[in-house]
Design goal:
It is built from four helices and 13 strands.
Length: about 220
């Protein structure tokens, strides 16, 4: 069974916000529009065929997307350097919906996550495209330590950011990516993985030099 874990990528889709040096906040979004329409191309084919060529404009960290180590660390692997077995992995879902302090949970040391994708289900996808989405839970330092020590290969969250944006150190991005542990943000529908074993897919275009890129994330699930 295939389970879609990606948000729809659409024109006007909300993205991250960036505070400029003057304090003004810039909100980034996605633009999708025809570069050439069906009507414009019809004469080229003597009215016997017509095509649309679609034009996109977006920053790489939009929608459900993957961060490569280069996103944080110069000289480390970028998106185009990743192999398929870096982004197609056996997965583990952690139910974090009841975590009040965003710290380590008792269940963590009991899980085998070595070489796996570890997906934290905060349930925050329910607030997608709503103001509440920006007031999200995040991965705490104790959990970051455990993920690194336990040999996780990829970490995903159904929130806007794996880090608390009030913390300029960005410990999850800094430490996970430094240890070549990939990050996927803005996942959705992780609750559908409850009680299932699954393989996780987060495959981007093989874009040379890109720090991050949207993915069509999904799981191939089987009964546990």
């Amino acid at each position: 069974m295939l389970i879609d874990l990606s948000h729809e990528f659409y024109d006007g889709m909300p993205g991250f916000k960036y505070k400029n040096d003057d304090g003004v906040v810039t909100a980034f979004n996605v633009s999708i529009k025809p570069f050439l329409t069906h009507a414009q191309t019809r004469p080229r084919y003597q009215g016997k065929a017509e095509f649309e060529i679609t034009e996109f404009h977006f920053h790489a960290s939009m929608g459900t997307y993957l961060d490569a180590p280069y996103h944080r660390w110069q000289g480390m692997r970028a998106i185009g350097d990743l192999k398929l077995d870096d982004v197609i992995l056996e997965g583990v879902r952690i139910d974090a919906r009841e975590a009040l302090e965003r710290t380590a949970w008792d269940v963590l040391p009991k899980l085998d996550v070595r070489g796996k994708a570890v997906l934290f289900n905060f349930g925050w996808d329910q607030f997608w495209d709503k103001p509440q989405y920006e007031a999200y839970p995040f991965i705490a330092r104790e959990v970051i330590d455990w993920l690194i020590e336990s040999g996780a290969k990829l970490v995903g969250v159904d929130t806007l950011n794996i880090d608390d944006t009030r913390d300029p150190e960005r410990p999850a991005h800094s430490r996970l990516l430094q240890n070549d542990i990939l990050i996927v943000e803005n996942l959705r529908n992780l609750a559908a993985l409850r009680g299932k074993q699954f393989r996780f897919f987060a495959v981007p275009l093989r874009a040379r030099g890109a720090a991050a890129l949207p993915v069509r994330a999904f799981a191939e699930a089987r009964a546990a």
